[in-house]
Every structure is written in C-alpha cells, then in structure tokens.
Design goal:
Blueprint (H helix, E strand, L loop, with lengths): L13 H6 L9 E4 L2 E4 L6 H11 L4 E4 L2 H7 L5 E6 L4 H10 L4 E6 L6 E5 L6 E2 L5 H10 L5 E3 L5 H6 L3 E6 L8 H18 L4 E6 L5 H8 L6 E5 L3
Parallel strand pairs: 3-5, 4-5, 8-10, 9-10
Antiparallel strand pairs: 1-2, 4-6, 6-7, 9-11
Helix pairs in contact: 4-5
C-alpha cells in the first residue's frame, strides 16, 4: 500500500501551523481519512520507515488472552475487543486510532462482545456503545490516564482537553526516580482523578528536570505539593 507524503513550511503558513497545534520543528502527523494522529516514532529515516510500515499493517492484533494482550501492550493505552470476531466498526476505529492506542482481539465464546480501554496501572473502562461513534467517544474520553506524566509529549494533549490541570510535584532523588515517586501517591491520586474527572486532569511532573519552571510558575520550593491550574 502506497503512502502520500506532504510537506509544509510552518513559518510561511502560520495559520495552518496554528490550526494543527505545531509548536516545534520538525513535527510529523499521520492522517487517516482526514483525521490527525500524533507521530510518536523516532527521527531517523529508518525509524520513520519502520513506524510507517507498522502503521500500514493490521490495526488489530490477536491475543490468546487478556493477560497476554496486557503484557504485550507497551506504553500506549490498551483497547481490547473480546468476542467471536471483531466488528467492522472496531476495525475502522482501530485503523484511525492506532497511533494513540494498541488494539487487540481476544477470541471468546461470549454471546455479547465487550470492548475495554485500559491504561497501565489502572482498571479497564468498559465502552457501552460499540458503534463507530460510540467507540470513538469512549476512546477520546479515555485517551489520557487518570494520573499521567506531564512532559513535552503529553503537555499539548492535556492543554487541549480544556480541563483544569493538577500538577503533582513529588520528591525525587533523580529523574530516573520519577515513576517511583508517582507510584507512592498513585492510589490516592487515582481516586481523586475519578471524582473530579470532568473538571480536572491529574498529572505528575519531573521535579528534578523542571525544578526552575515549577518554582517560577507556582513558587513551589517544598515537596511534595500539588499545584492547580483551574483551567488548562
């Protein structure tokens, strides 16, 4: 299957750059039927080629069990269809959302199929409406984790959500200690995120790497603490 590649000069086409949220260079996007997805691959020609090859293969992978799908999911949120055969709507949404989610089919004898979305360390969320529009809404609503890292890759998505933003600032020995520090508070932060999901996105940030930024924005000098933007 052939791919079409297009290039724009964002400095000359500022309106288009603003429309697509281009904040740095180079920026790569993947489009399926006019719907944009973020490119999350490497920057070398070989890495880009590998990423494009993966994106044109089957959008839905097969797993013998849910546990196998969870173990193979990687860093992206996991979307699992459990039932005899996947529906056309599920295959279509998987094709469009494959850069943001990992899709698996687990064959079962259940009369009624189920579709769930799950972030690492969180409970699966059941999608009630299995039509294309229903699945799209379910995935859009659950694209971000209840309690996720705030970094250069995720910042734009959190800002685009239109919600208030809670910054979890925790004590770390180094940047490598970020996940350990966040995991210590994850249970309580997940519960808060569930309660205030419609109003706030709950995040944690590397307080070693972004120490000066946190101090400058919020005046935070003691950890742990929570900083709140009422609206992103």
């Amino acid at each position: 299957e052939k791919l079409a590649f297009a290039e724009i000069d964002a400095t000359a086409n500022k309106k288009m750059a603003e429309e697509y949220g281009i904040r740095g260079y180079p920026t790569l996007f993947w489009f399926v039927d006019g719907e944009k997805s973020e490119y999350d691959g490497g920057r070398t020609a070989a890495e880009i080629k590998t990423w494009c090859t993966d994106m044109t293969g089957p959008a839905v992978k097969e797993a013998s069990s849910r546990k196998e799908a969870e173990e193979a999911a990687g860093t992206k949120p996991l979307c699992v269809y459990e039932g005899a055969e996947t529906s056309t709507d599920f295959e279509e949404i998987a094709s469009r959302k494959r850069s943001d989610f990992t899709f698996y089919h687990v064959a079962t004898d259940a009369e009624k199929p189920t579709v769930t979305v799950q972030h690492k360390g969180e409970e699966p969320v059941v999608c009630d409406d299995l039509t294309f529009d229903g699945l799209k809404k379910c995935l859009d609503d659950n694209e971000l984790p209840l309690f996720g890292v705030l970094d250069g890759e995720s910042y734009g998505k959190y800002m685009a959500s239109g919600k208030g933003l809670v910054w979890g600032c925790f004590e770390q020995e180094s940047s490598d200690d970020l996940e350990r520090a966040a995991d210590e508070y994850r249970p309580v932060m997940n519960e808060l995120a569930k309660e205030f999901k419609d109003k706030f996105a709950f995040t944690y940030i590397d307080t070693v790497q972004f120490k000066r930024a946190i101090e400058g924005m919020f005046g935070v000098t003691e950890l742990p603490t929570l900083a709140v933007n009422k609206k992103a």
